[in-house]
Amino acid sequence: MKRGGVERSAWLAYAWLAVFFLAPFALVLKLSLSHTTLGIPPYAPRLDLSQGLASVVALVRDLNFDAYGRFVSDRLYVDAYLSSLGYAGVATALLIAIGYPMALAMARAPRGAQPFLVAAVIAPFWTSFLLRIYAWTAILKPEGWLNLALRSLGLPEVQLLNTDAAIYLGLVYAYLPFMVLPLYAVLERQDQGLLEAAADLGATPWRAFWTVTFPMSLPGVAAGALLCLIPMTGEFIVPDLLGGSQTLMIGKVIWSEFFQNRDWPAAAAAAAALTATLVLPILLHQRLQARTLSR
Amino acid sequence: MRRGPGVLGWAVLALGLAFLYLPMALVVIYSFNAGRLVTVWSGFSLRWYGELFRDEALLASVLISFEVALLAASLATLLGVCAGLGLARRARLPARGLFTSAVYAPLVTPDILLGFSLLLLFISLGLPRGFATIVIAHATASIGYVAVVVRARLMQVDPALEEAAQDLGASPLKAFLTVVLPVIAPAVIAGWLLAFSLSLDDLVIASFTAGPGATTLPMRLYSQVRLGVNPEVNAVFSLMMLAVTLAAAAYAIILRQSARGPRTGA
After folding, report:
1. Statement: the pTM of the whole predicted model exceeds 0.80
2. Domains of chain B
3. What's the number of CA atoms in the CB half-sphere (13 Å) around residue A243?
4. For residue B30, which residues of chain A lie inside 8 Å, CB to CB?
5. Model confidence pLDDT, tens digit, residues B94-145
6. Is the Cβ–Cβ distance between A91 and A168 less than 8 Å?
7. Facing residue for B117 by CB, picked from A17, A271, A285
8. B residues 153-192 closer than 8 Å to A (CB)
9. Domains of chain A, with CATH numbers?
């Protein structure tokens, strides 16, 4: 193969990413480690009773309450991380439940209409994320549009802003395009003849869906889930604007440790917990790639 | 015979699209509201647009955001094309798996992680935070998007074209610039637009990497949004929607023109 030479320019991108993406990760891990070494409480408090009362006073003075506090706050990061994963997991399930029927309908729409439907799903992504979430605060607040509508219909009002329901709503709203598009991409390529074959063999449409369409679309489900799950775990804007003060999400913890508490090692520790989310998809991606290469 | 989406399918689509667009439509409609109360309609007015254009701090942040986005998108496109070439042509690189991960990982890395880790880097390098650091951060976050789009297009380019150009005496670089680049141009433009809009939209990365004097539009809006619903913000949002619509229309026209023109010659 004689063409090329230009692909050597990839070195440039490689170098850039090494300096501005890989190295910063190493820094986060380093800082978070220094945090945990700081956080280790004194191993063996030395209590020398022969010194009498003075030794007790010295022991109490030496007790590292700061370190103890850090130990407790480490627990907070693990909790925040797990709770974020929980929010993101539930939202991903909701996204699949809502996005799958949409993608299926798009894939089965007339060919001519499909580019417009795709454009309609992508378009919100091009507008401001912050302002789209902000729109929901105007809808959900006590005197917001939702309650105005409910009142005019004679229905009881609801209090949604600053609740978990609002977070799920915001996450689903913001990430719906990221779920619909990968699903549409696999569903659109599916051979409709397979469904006819299933029907000829006596399968009901419902059974044909679960035995043919859905299993074949699983790569799209996986792609959509990864595209949504990981960024949602580290989401900041949604819990900040729509969630309540009791909402525990790691993105919000990092933000407040850094901007409000000015505690960098603490923010790094929380960030290091968040990097754990990235490891699995990268391994998965490399396995998938190895498989397609060996084929 | 193709199966249509059916009544249920169309209903699901209509509901889904309504869910996506209704909140945005409400904000646009209420940006023309005369009153300060955001949810009570008190007559049509362009008052908030007028206030917008008198808000000097806001206008300054718009300018900064556009400058940052212009530079960051261009830098990300240059590096993204390089990365896309490396991916599509399996460039020989040490630890290729690491390279692939470094290109794709930023696509799913939470912004808060990118922003915070870059902040640590800038501090350890002794770089003063400000305009330049936001540009670097945004470019880094967008390289992967450009690379993915460009790689997909490169895979479709017939290698014979480039080989022919080289057989006729063109250097590899010249063959790429004159033969391949025009073919992948729509993908490059799409990548640039994607990077531009990501930069324009970003709040979290910019908040970590910005310094005093470099406040971008989303940072400005965030500080206003935190204080509650604000009619001026509605007006900003509506103008953004208008800009996006115009940009999308322009892109569609460019695409159609480049698809129509028989520039490949006889």
Report:
1. yes
2. 63-228 (1.10.3720.10)
3. 21
4. 138
5. 888 889 889 988 888 899 999 999 999 998 898 899 999 999 999 999 999 9
6. yes
7. A271
8. 159, 162-163, 166, 172-173, 175-176, 180
9. 28-44+51-284 (1.10.3720.10)
